[in-house]
Every structure is written in C-alpha cells, then in structure tokens.
Amino acid sequence: MELNAFIIFIAAIFTSNILLTNFLGMCSFLSVSKEVESSIGLGMAVVFVMTITSAINYVVYHYILVPLDIIYLQYIIFIIVIAAFVQLTEMVMERFSPILYYSLGIFLPLITVNCAILGVSLFMIIRNYSFIQSVAYGAGSGLGWLLAILALAGIRQRIKEKYVPTGLVGAGLSLIITGIMALAFVGFSGIVVIQ
In this predicted model, what pLDDT tens digit does every residue of 114-130 receive, in sequence order? Predict the structure, then answer.
C-alpha cells in the first residue's frame, strides 16, 4: 500500500522527526537554538533548502543518475545540489534580511553540510517515494526540524534566567532537553510509521 503524501508530511513532522528520531542535524540545532529569532530564521532556511533540494535530488536521481547508470555518484551530486541551494539562500537572505544573515553567521553556510538535509534525500530514495511523496517528506522534515529548534530555543530562553548547575550550562542542558523532547515525540510513534 502506497502512503498518501499528506500522511508522509505529517509523519515527517511528528512521528519520524528527522532530528528527534534520527538525530540528524544536531550541530546547527544545538548552536543556533540560543535565541528564538535566529532559530526561526535558520529553521525557515532549512525548510526551504530541504523542500527544494528533495525535489531536485529526486529528479536528478531518477532522470539523470539512474538512466546513465551512475548511481554511485549520488552522494556527491546530492551535496552539490544542496550546496548550490544553500548558496542561493544565503545570497537572498543577505540581500533581503541582513540582520538575520549576520545573526546566523557561520551556521547559514553550514546548512550545506547539515546531515539532515542529505539524510532526507537519501531516505526518499531508499523508501522509493514518488516525486510528490519526496517533496512532502522534504517539507515535513524541514518543518519538523523547525519545530524542534523552536521548542529548544524557547526552553533555553526560559531557563536562562533560572539557576542551572555549572556542569550543565550550555550543551549539557541542551542535550538533556533534546532527549526529553525526543521522548515526548515517541508518544506520536504509534500514529503512523513511514520508516
């Protein structure tokens, strides 16, 4: 039975959240989640890049790599597509939102090596998704990543004012919060499985 694209979209946000179930894309997630504003900006950039690159990588894989029998180049080609789109996103953001561009700093170009984006492209190939399913999975995974980084940023801003033991300040507390959020998302796991 083929899954509906809407079900894949919802599952990618909640039950199969790319960050909280596969723990892909953790580096920028932990680094940028100190403030809600910068988290929204990076999250939206990830949603945009993940959605568009999943569509392009689907087309490249099925209409170029498979017919030419050069599937072994898929990692390199997928990364090139992702890098090109991140560069485009970076140029647009610098032009239209320089404040956000400078607040994200080095983490904006690092979207290129965000393993969550490459993971989405590889998962859609492994799971034999159609084009519509691939785009839905890419968009849902991006929104799931955005939801997770917003939740962590909001919690970190609230905790900033509270007493936190010295050993937990920074990454330690963020990893504990992420683990608790991942446990909360496990509660959605019985709804639908796309893995």
Answer: 789 999 999 999 999 99
